[in-house]
Design goal:
Blueprint: H1 22-48, H2 56-104, H3 119-145
């Protein structure tokens, strides 16, 4: 007999991270970069506070320490600026999608309890006429008072 493949759907044995949110993850990453930047700036300040080297060997080591801390500080600052830009871009994207999603969803009339079908439209039209009459009366009154 030939072996046949199973046609049943299979579920992964690895649990899915159902509570993952990209915005939260990005904010957490940004917070970690802030911590790294603070450490690097502290290391740079500590390297600046070292006494002046007196031998050639000490000058080489001192130069390496200065170069490493300066480079690390520049890289941490650049990474923080990039992380801030990514957080800002994500916030803008989320904000841009929010009104688009609401505007694309058609607004359904909410039925009124105890009112027969079809009367909602007439009631809405009557409310619109009442609002228009009130606003025109208010504008006429404000014109007369000036």
């Amino acid at each position: 007999m030939k072996d046949h493949r199973s046609t049943h759907a299979k579920v992964s044995k690895e649990p899915e991270n159902s509570n993952f949110e990209a915005g939260t993850a990005l904010e957490n990453l940004r917070a970690e970069i802030i911590d790294i930047e603070a450490l690097v700036h502290a290391a740079e300040a500590a390297a600046d506070a070292l006494p002046a080297p007196s031998t050639d060997r000490q000058r080489v080591v001192f130069g390496r320490i200065q170069a490493l801390t300066t480079k690390a500080s520049e890289q941490a600052s650049a990474s923080l600026h990039y992380a801030n830009a990514q957080v800002t871009a994500l916030a803008a994207q989320v904000e841009a999608r929010r009104p688009a999603r609401c505007a694309s969803t058609p607004s359904l009339p909410t039925p009124q309890l105890g009112v027969p079908a079809g009367h909602e439209q007439r009631n809405a039209a009557q409310r619109a006429r009442d609002n228009a009459a009130t606003s025109s009366a208010d504008s006429a009154e404000s014109t007369l008072s000036t």
